[in-house]
Amino acid sequence: MASRAKSNRVILNVGGDRHEVLWRTLNRLPHSRLGRLGHAVTHEAISQICDDYSLEDNEYFFDRHPQSFGCVLNMYRTGHLHTVEDICILAYHSDLVYWGIDERHMDPCCLSRYYQKKEHVEDEMRKVNEIFLQQMDTEYSGDDRCAVYRKKLWDILEKPQTSMAARVRLLILLKNFTFTGFGF
C-alpha cells in the first residue's frame, strides 16, 4: 500500500489495454467502481473491485472487454459520457452498470439515441423470445394424433402451474429431493 500512496498516478489494465490516470481523476466519481478503488486499502476490498492487481507496479487489472472503457474513463476526465457506436447497446449498458456509471449522466447529444437503441433492442429480444415460445408450443402441439398427449406431457414435465397433475409431480419431486438431501 505504501507504493500506492507515493504515486499520484495509477495504471488501469482493462482487458489488456493499459490506461494511466491520476488518482484524483478517479475520485471525481467516488461511488463508482474506480472511485471506490482509490479508497480501498485492504486486499479483500481491492479484490472485490478488480480481478487482479500489483501494488509494486501500481497496476489494477479488470478482465473486461476494453471497447467501451475509453468512454467510461473520459467520463472521469471530462465529466461527459458519450456512447460507443460500434458496440451492442446492451453490452455498453452492462459495462456502465459494471463500472458504476449511471446512464443518466450521458450527454444530451447521445442520450436520446442511447435510449432509442436500447428500447429497440429490448423490443426485438422480446419478439424473438415470443416467436421461440410459439415455435415450442407448435412443435409440441403439431397436427398428428399424439400432439394433444405430447403437449399435456410437456406441460406436466415443464410447466407446473398448468395443471393439478403437474403440481402433484412437482410436490413428489420436492419430497424426494428433501428426503434424499436429509439422508432419509
Automatic annotation (TrEMBL):
Q: Which UniProt keywords apply?
A: Ion channel, Ion transport, Membrane, Transmembrane, Transmembrane helix, Transport
InterPro entries linked: BTB/POZ_dom (IPR000210), K_chnl_volt-dep_Kv5/Kv9 (IPR003971), SKP1/BTB/POZ_sf (IPR011333), T1-type_BTB (IPR003131), VG_K_chnl (IPR028325)
One Gene Ontology term of the biological-process aspect is: protein homooligomerization
One GO location term (cellular component): voltage-gated potassium channel complex
> Quick check: keyword Cytoplasm in the entry?
no
Cellular location of this protein? Membrane
Reply yes or no: does the keyword rRNA processing apply: no
Q: How does it sit in the membrane?
A: Multi-pass membrane protein
Its protein name is: BTB domain-containing protein
Can you name the source organism? Dibothriocephalus latus (Fish tapeworm)
